[in-house]
């Protein structure tokens, strides 16, 4: 019998619903595989603001730090949109990533054969897409200083807003290493680094560090692509990609775009990892979807697959991860669909029913 | 008889080929409509570097300033990729945009009924897409200061690269005004402003200025969208968009992505306009495609349609612009296709033959 302590952060909107379903899946799979869970629930985002005034209370951070992994659903919503920047739900998420030094955000995009018709892209373009985006997560214009909104000197009351896009060599190196190692471990061994080196100094340094690291990974076939071209190529010919490495801002945009290959944001998990000092963070890449919250319409699969990634990467139980992923696939085979991935001839199910079907299959 | 002086900048790669074909089209349409042309050719990009060492020689800038409009093909290529930033072909293009104060880059994306099968997206999602991206073009992280690569104080030789993402209120206002006016003039009167206001101060100021301007345009239905979501929605449900307003960096990424709706980058023109003091710049949104340069394989249509935009916006000849656009459409009706938009049952044509067919049709 093995025992794992996991910090559980349901967050806002559809967060609590999909997290409930995910914990049910973990409990059931735990019985099968003799894994005992200690779920330590903690507040984050709007829920934490409402309860404590802070989107990431000290106590939540302490719970996360003392766990083996963090399982997070999603944060944010219109209720908190008018708060100043540092007090918004998103600020809690960004601080959590930074505090746990989760600098490498892995976003695998695999098309499910059962869902090819749910994608806006033509079937033959997306069949068998299997790529993974490695997004840097604790630097770039998200965190760069100085930042702010100020009056322009002698600007007659005019204001200017500014953020700093920046990368240090060590920040580039550590996330590039994750991407190279990952590329090594995959059959195609291809790595495409995405930047805007024809315009930005930040990208030039990025590109030169990635190039320098390539010598240590002679098996890896490295290429570079400008971000505008990458945004196009992801739609035009997604199968050309194996591992994509990019910065925080570009990765945010490209990974949401890439989710359409899989048919829905509601299918895509992510893992945010550091160097091992702190627990990894596992979260769906989708948001809190306040418009459908509380209606039993959310797709819990991205959250469930995030739990599978947690089992694989942080808890070193690939066997249990496989079991969850197979159960998800089997339920899709049976024709069950939540609203976001519904297509003709399939059977529509709510969030809870989808979870129950997966639990039964396990 | 009217006479127009146009600065012609063929640039690099496929630039000279597509520009030749475009000038032929302009000459022919000029005969019909009694428009006389004075084409003032000038160097830019790699071609200018090779000839003068400067990607935008003073003389080229003078030619542009003394013309009614600037028609530009494309710049860049691997030959100049290792030059330092300010000496690269792209730097010439950026300086031209800045010097001519061309702050509003209009990128219309319309699907051609003849090309629905050339798009990677499913037919019914893209039929009758008709959106236009208004991209700010002379500010943002492209131009923000300070920028550079420096040793970190006490960093043991480690370097940090940085760029500044910034916007002033006046810069936001002037481009937002263009977008609101444009939305007013269109049947749907919708405007979607794209930013990352949940993270960036720059976007917060952007959003608040756009909101403030909305009062002056009560007919316009204004919405805001985060850039990651926009990248997804452009693929998921492109018909939801009418006018999209966004900053320089996000606009670069989103407009290349949106080109896939039309089937190919090779179909999309753009217009870069200021407040009227200087001539507008008209250019395809595609790059110089060095891999196919000189092979008579390039698609000249984006450049030809850019010339049509020039006739419409700068030369106030919508009649002539319409004639060009109809001729392009007629040639597509006849089944002629360049390689990038080739599909089953169509007739493949080279760049020159495509141009000849359009000239004949006029
Ligand atoms: C909620 C937001 C701050 C976040 C981000 O931009 O990183 C989200 O979009 C994501 O991709 O995880
Ligand atoms: C060539 C490059 C500098 C340019 C840009 O990024 O603006 C191009 O991608 C474009 O979109 O016109």
Helices and strands, with pairings:
Two copies of one chain form a homodimer.
Chain A: E1 2-11, H1 15-33, E2 35-41, H2 45-52, H3 58-65, E3 69-74, H4 89-99, E4 104-110, H5 123-126, E5 130-136, E6 148-151, E7 159-168, H6 169-185, E8 190-195, H7 201-214, E9 221-226, H8 227-236, E10 243-246, H9 248-258, E11 269-273, E12 280-284, H10 301-313, H11 318-333, E13 336-337, E14 347-348, H12 351-361
Parallel strand pairs in A: 1-2, 1-3, 3-12, 5-10, 8-9, 8-10, 13-14
Antiparallel strand pairs in A: 4-5, 4-11, 6-7, 11-12
The complex binds 3-isopropylmalic acid (IPM) (2 copies).
One 3-isopropylmalic acid sits between chains B (76, 90, 93-94, 252, 285) and A (198-199, 228).
